[in-house]
Amino acid sequence: MAGQRNRNRIRRQRAKARLVSEVEAEAEAEGAARVPEVDGEVVTAADRVVQRKIPLSKLSQSATKEELRRRSLIGQIRGHYLDAISRLPTTELATTLARGLLIAGHCYGPLHPVHNIIVNSVWHSAAFPMRASDRIDAPVISCRTISRLVQRSLDGLVASLRHLCPGLSDDDALWHLSLSRADLRAAVASARGFRLTASELEAAFEAAAKAAGHVKPVALALFASSVLLSVERDVVSLLNNKRRLSSADILCLSTTLLPSPLPDELPDPPLEERFTAAFKLIARKRSHLTRWYTEWVEIADTALRKYARQTAEHYLLHIIYGYGALRDEFHMVRSYHINFMAWPKNPCAREAPVFFFAKALLPSVSGFCEEDITLCCTVQPSPVEVDRCHTCLAENFQIDHPDDSKNFGGGQYYHMDGIGEDLDCPIMTDVDYRCFDPVRDIGFVECLNQDFVNYMSSSPWHRRYKKQIDLAISDYCTGII
Predict the structure, then answer these.
(1) E strands within 345-477?
(2) Which are the contacts of 96, defined by CB distance < 8 A and separation ≥ 6?
(3) Which residues form the DUF3615 domain (predicted)?
């Protein structure tokens, strides 16, 4: 049995390595040059764009290669997000920084991708703060929220690189970004042979922000191309010298990145007066989310208690970064898979939190107990799908599973051969409701209102009983999770 588990683990590790390295091997086979150092000397004076030459005999394979390259980049960017999340202070991550990170914390910008995520999140939270009464404070981030952040960041990176290098195709842009591990500066140096110049930045970052659906594209472009560059040395020094940021560090960054308040135009009249039904929908869904978040935190805390009893190692929850409810053939919840980060109770012992996976059964009574936790163990974040169980893969839950387990949910581990759809990038996720700003989110309210109108008009019963608005809202809200 142990030998079989070892063979399974080795097979999965080889599959993972092949999936991650195939892009780089393919690039080298095509004669790719070494990516120039971003902070080094100019490689060439010629303003040229390096394009890959694909023989006609290989054109039939290009679609598969592009999918593989995109998947590899998605895995790399997800890794950048997990790194950034692990560095932020626990309290601020669940409260004041939540909207800045989950709505506007994209990874493009003039710095390293992880630094861009942190800086963009802190700046947005300081520039456009939510009222405390409007927040849902919870140490929870859903799989779909991270997937959307990753996909939007990738869209922004491609748009920015193509703006700076108009001769590139989408596939060429993905190729250079893959070589640079999603670092825009290195990708530009790879494509053109020399670095970004200050005069190019604002338009390039605005193109990125618009392609990524950023809520404040013009303001972000101005910040990243001017304010950030003026304080870049101090910011990079802080981020390089301290892996784990404190509350004082976040306050220092906020003051540095936003020396004075930004003008912020608010809608008049207030949105709630114009979209009554949409605000009722949002209130109902936020109530559902609050209960769900409480349940996920309860699972993580219970799993950590059981882990402490079994190993004598005590941890405190940092953040939940993925969860999924697994259902049977009758669509009834039977178990839960969850990922979370946790700090040892002796915080000086580590500079990074530990990543965990836990599996919990549906409790027979209200509340979770240790008997409901069937597995809790440490894991390493995986950049690709080979570590996901069949059930999580089918439900599109990006969950990191332990390597030494044979299977989960009755399904074998699934190996992607570069074929298939990208990770879903939903238009709306739970975070749109959790981080809803009633004085700024005009586009979200208008979109939700139109979707609800379409829902009402598509239902004969609701068309007939138009005055039963509360019942219609209740029916509409059943699809929240």
Answers:
(1) 354-361, 373-378
(2) 125, 129, 135
(3) 300-402
413, 111 in Cβ contact below 8 A?
Answer: no
**pLDDT digits 0-9 by tens, 172-207:** 999 999 999 999 999 999 998 877 777 789 999 999
User: Quick one: tokens of 147?
Assistant: 């997937």
Return the structure tokens found at 157: 């990176």
pLDDT attached to residue 14 = 56
| Rounded Cα distance, 301 and 187, in Å | 42
The predicted model scores a pTM of: 0.84
Tokens 């004076």 appear where? 45
d(CA 231, CA 116): 13
Instruction: Kindly report the average pLDDT of the chain as a whole number.
Output: 82
DSSP letter (8 states) at residue 408: B
Q: Give the per-residue SS3 of 165-220.
A: CCCCCHHHHHHHHHHCCCCHHHHHHHHHCCCCCHHHHHHHHHHHHHHCCCCCHHHH
Looking at the predicted structure, is the pLDDT value of residue 3 above 80? no
Residues of the chain above pLDDT 70, percent: 77
**Contact present, 414 and 388 (Cβ < 8 Å):** yes
Residue ranges per domain, the chain?
A: 23-35+62-257, 272-277+427-479
The answer to whether 211 touches 151, Cβ cutoff 8 Å, is: no
pLDDT value at position 389?
74
373 has which bridge partners? 360
Are the CB atoms for 250 and 125 separated by under 8 Å?
no
Helical (H) or strand (E) element with 50:
none
Whether residue 438 has a cis bond before it, omega within 30° of 0: no
pLDDT digits (tens, 9 = 90+) for 377-387: 999 887 655 55
Of the candidates 357, 356, 337, the one whose C-alpha atom is nearest the C-alpha of residue 397 is: 337
Q: Residue 321: in which H helix or E strand, if any? A: strand 315-327
* DSSP H stretches of helix in 215-367: 217-222, 228-230, 232-241, 247-257, 271-274, 276-311
Rg, C-alpha atoms of the chain? 23
Q: Are 365 and 382 in contact (CB under 8 A)?
A: no
Query: What's the CA gap between 95 and 92, in Å, rounded?
Result: 5
- Sheet with 333-344, side-by-side order of all strands: 315-327, 333-344, 354-361, 373-378
| 46 pLDDT more than 60 | no
Distance of CA 463 to the CA centre of its chain: 38
Give the 3-state secondary structure of residue 350: coil
Query: Do residues 180 and 128 touch, judged by C-beta distance below 8 A?
Result: no
Q: How many CA atoms lie within 13 A of 22 on its CB side?
A: 19
